[in-house]
Design brief:
The protein is 76% helix and 0% strand. With 640 residues, the chain is an all-alpha fold. Helix 22 runs antiparallel to helix 25 and helix 27 packs antiparallel against helix 28. It is globular and about 85 Å long.
Length: 640
């Protein structure tokens, strides 16, 4: 290869990254159909996957040796050829794949090699091993003992299925990622390009005010707002943490605390509307319900998650004497709104389209993107724009968004392979039957097993991959046992995310530790403590579905208020401080009472027992804060 090859491939990768989101927008706006072309969604998704594979193989080409560069160039160009080939041949192969067995066999082999090798590079070996295990089961399933025993399938049939069938590589997971997730990532990139990050930070400063520990509170609110758009915990940490973590350390928080707070706040962005990351869109498609129902169901859990973190920050700041950081530059609210009018308009278009006009989320977000693109261009024409609102900056944002979605496209393609093989081999049915039998004897034990599997899978997989696997294996069993489908899917969704803050891996916490300079494991432990409520919320989805807006308004209000009381009790008990210091006996009382309020006591005793415990917890809080107020007033008077 010549020295110009890396530069050539870098330019090619940048152009293809720019092209990926444009193809998604063109498909959602039905441009091919309006031009009179009859095109399958699988054809467009295949082209986008081919472009994504090319981008992955062409990355960092200048840093590779001659042999690796040659191999990756071959892989990159083959990936483009693969996408174009499937685009041309899919209509023929999907109708009569059995008439072209050799072609289907070769196509399946090429698809499998390119996807698995690309997957190894972007997320490691975990998902590769899971996919290979499914291949081996399909080929040698008769050798598996017990109830999961299958039948051996010919190698050619498996490859034909993976290369040509709509239920495998080119199926629903890849299409959702290509036509929904890519567009929302593009929306987030454009939003940040026009000043959305600064707008979120200034809004957070105005919301938080000048109370104790306000730097950490600003970090929580800003990272939550930013994360709800980015949908990626680790990228959120690396984007906002470089600003928020030094602020927290400067105001007195320890390195491990600062890193943990940022990790927990950033991880919660995947739970917070209006975007919630790729898994939320997959959930809406799998459940066949409007995306706005997912958003509404996520509101209260996300609110409780951030309230818990906020309360812990406040208690720690009061305990350790972290006063308000007056050096933070807070703009006037009117000035914040005057600078952030463009992000606000984009959100109005997005949420208005979803809730007021019942648009599909991908259509509504294109409305928002239209505002983000055309309003700055109009301002530039009128001579009132800024450099970051230029055509070049918008084009660069589109390319960055395309590059960041390439990994998601590979993950969902592999997930489509796995889900397809589960169906083809019958293993999905066998596993669901086994889990139903197990859960019929002890539902709580099945929930615990599902939660642990979700966390373990999350140690090596992103949330999207974990959710797709558990949604195919565990969620159907939970639904068969009488759990509401939305509650079952939200359960596995949460536990697919929690590995980000769960030691020993805790990728979000480790990313934050690299910025804070604190110990990685200690930061992970702190993140586990700060995010404690997230480990209980999924069980509430099952036993108290009112938390997901399911039920009467009285049930919803009671569950929310009792959960707020519980999170204050447990948070204060863990920290040992609220307004004044708590003794050992009080800490135990607070934690135990809080956990009992969360527990589904109505499953084990009369309904009145749960209500009585909630009232008792509220009385404990009321008495404490009454006494604490008097104590603080007395101390202030004594020092005056």
């Amino acid at each position: 290869m010549t020295n110009s090859s890396p530069a050539y491939l870098d330019r090619l990768a940048a152009f293809l990254s720019f092209l990926v989101p444009l193809l998604a927008v063109a498909w959602v706006l039905a441009v091919p159909q309006r031009m009179g072309f009859l095109i399958y969604p699988e054809q467009v998704a295949a082209v986008m996957l081919g472009l994504a594979l090319c981008v992955v193989y062409a990355r960092n080409m200048a840093n590779k040796g001659p042999m690796q560069r040659s191999l990756d160039t071959l892989f990159a160009l083959t990936s483009i050829g693969l996408g174009l080939y499937v685009f041309v041949r899919f209509p023929v192969l999907t109708e009569g794949a059995h008439l072209h067995p050799t072609e289907g066999l070769i196509l399946g082999i090429i698809v499998s090699i390119l996807v698995l090798e690309g997957l190894r590079r972007v997320v490691g070996l975990t998902l590769v091993f899971i996919t290979l295990a499914m291949f081996l089961y399909a080929l040698f399933g008769s050798h598996v003992p017990g109830p999961l025993r299958g039948r051996n399938l010919p190698f050619a049939d498996v490859m034909l299925f993976l290369g040509t069938d709509s239920a495998a590589t080119w199926g629903a997971p890849l299409q959702i990622a290509a036509f929904v997730v890519v567009i929302f990532v593009l929306f987030g990139g454009l939003l940040l390009a026009v000043g959305g990050g600064e707008f979120f930070t200034q809004i957070a400063m105005r919301i938080v005010g000048n109370g104790p520990g306000n730097t950490a509170k600003v970090a929580t609110v800003a990272s939550g707002l930013f994360g709800s758009i980015s949908g990626s915990a680790v990228s959120n940490v690396m984007s906002t943490g470089v600003l928020t973590i030094p602020m927290m350390k400067r105001s007195g928080f320890k390195s491990e605390q600062a890193g943990a707070i940022e990790a927990v706040a950033s991880t919660g962005g995947q739970l917070a509307p209006p975007v919630m990351g790729a898994a939320a869109f997959l959930m809406a498609e799998l459940l066949q319900i409007p995306y706005r129902e997912i958003l509404l169901a996520a509101v209260m859990p996300a609110g409780l998650y951030y309230l818990s973190l906020y309360a812990q920050i406040d208690f720690i700041a009061r305990r350790d004497g972290h006063g308000a950081a007056g050096w933070m530059k807070r703009e006037q609210f009117r000035e914040v709104l005057s600078k952030g009018w463009l992000p606000m308009i984009a959100f109005v278009f997005l949420l208005g389209g979803i809730f007021a006009f019942n648009l599909r989320p991908e259509i509504a977000v294109i409305w928002g993107m239209g505002a983000l693109i055309f309003a700055p261009l109009l301002l530039n024409i009128l001579g009132r724009g800024t450099p970051r609102q230029s055509v070049g900056n918008i084009a660069a944002s589109i390319a960055r968004a395309g590059s960041s979605t390439c990994d998601v496209l590979l993950i969902t393609a592999a997930a489509g392979m796995i889900i397809g093989l589960l169906s083809m081999t019958g293993l999905g049915f066998s596993l669901s039957f086994f889990l139903i039998s197990f859960g019929g004897q002890n539902l709580f034990a099945l929930l615990i097993v599902t939660a642990l599997v979700g966390i373990l899978l999350g140690l090596g997989l992103p949330t999207t991959g974990v959710y797709l696997l558990l949604a195919s294996l565990a969620a159907p069993a939970l639904v068969q046992l009488g759990i509401r489908p939305l509650a079952a899917h939200m359960f596995v969704f949460y536990f697919g995310m929690l590995s980000m803050i769960t030691p020993p891996i805790a990728m979000a916490a480790f990313a934050a530790a690299s910025i804070s300079g604190g110990g990685q494991f200690q930061t992970g432990v702190q993140a586990f403590r700060f995010g404690w409520i997230a480990y209980f919320l999924p069980f509430l989805f099952i036993y108290k579905p009112a938390l997901l807006m399911i039920g009467t308004w009285q049930d919803i209000a009671y569950v929310f208020i009792s959960a707020v009381v519980a999170l204050i009790l447990v948070s204060g008990g863990l920290i040992g401080f609220a307004r004044v210091r708590l003794g050992s006996a009080s800490r135990i009382l607070w934690v135990v009472t809080g956990l009992l309020i969360i527990a589904p006591l109505h499953e084990f005793g009369p309904v009145g027992l749960e209500f009585a415990v909630s009232v008792f917890g509220l009385a404990v809080l009321g008495a404490y804060f009454w006494v604490a107020r008097a104590t603080v007033a007395s101390d202030n008077g004594g020092t005056g």
